[in-house]
Request: fold
Amino acid sequence: MLDRVLLTNDDGIDAPGLEVMEAIAAQIAREVWVVAPEHDQSGQSHAISLHHALRVTDRGNRRFGVTGTPGDCAVMGLCHIMKDNLPQLVLSGVNRGLNLGLETVFSGTVGGAMTAMLLGVPAIAMSQAYNDRRNVTWDCSRTLGADVVRKLLAMGWGKDAVLNVNFPPGAAADAGEMTLARQGVGMVAGMNVETRTDPRGMEYHWLNFRRGDRPQGPESDYTALRAGRIVVTPLRYDRTDEDAYADLAGKLPRLP
Reply:
C-alpha cells in the first residue's frame, strides 16, 4: 500500500468522478490528498496560469480547491501543499467521458497527469466512457479502478510517460481485460463555432468538437474501447513525428 497519493481532475472538485477516484485511492494509499479545480476546467490541456493569481480553499480532510487548471492543481499540490511530503503517485480523474485519440491533446485530465510527471511524480489519468451523458454509469471504474492501479504499479513504466486509462461503459462484470493500445486518431473530425445572440443584442460563441467515425489504425485505443476493454495507453511530451523528421532530414541541416 502506498503512503500517500494526490488526486486531481478537470471536472471540478465537486464532480462525481472525483468521488469515484477518492474511493479508488482509499484502497491503495494510507493518505489521500485532493487538489482539484474549483470549477470545470475541461479542455484546458496542459495549461498553467502565468498571468493571474491562484486562490486555494481548504475543503477539509486533505482536500483543497484551486481557482485554476488541472496543471495548476498539480503544481500547487506538488510544489506547495505537499512539498514536504510528496505523494508516490498522482491520479487524475475519473473523467466523465472518454479521453482517446486526438482528444488527449485537449484533455485537462491528461494535462494534470502530464504536469505531475513533468514534476517527477508518476501519474495515471483515468476516464469513464458512457452511453448516456445524463446518466453516467461509474460501476466499471469504481469497481475495477483500484485493481487496475495496483497491477500497473506492479508492472512499472518509464518515468517519461503517463498512463492514460479508459474504462468502457456499462457494468464492471461486462468489462474486458486490461489491454495495451496506441493513441489512435480518435473521433474528432473538426470543430464547430455556434453563434448566438444575448438579450442585449451582442453576439457570443460556443466552440465544440465535430466528431465522426474515422479509420483508427492498428492497435488503437478507440478500437480497444469499442471491444469493451479497459484501455491503457502510455503518453509522453515528445511529439516529434519520426516520418516527417526523416523526410526533412535530407532537406534541412541537423546538429552534428
Observations:
- The CA atoms of residues 11 and 208 lie 17 Å apart.
- The radius of gyration is 19 Å.
- The mean pLDDT is 94.
- The longest helix spans residues 139-155.
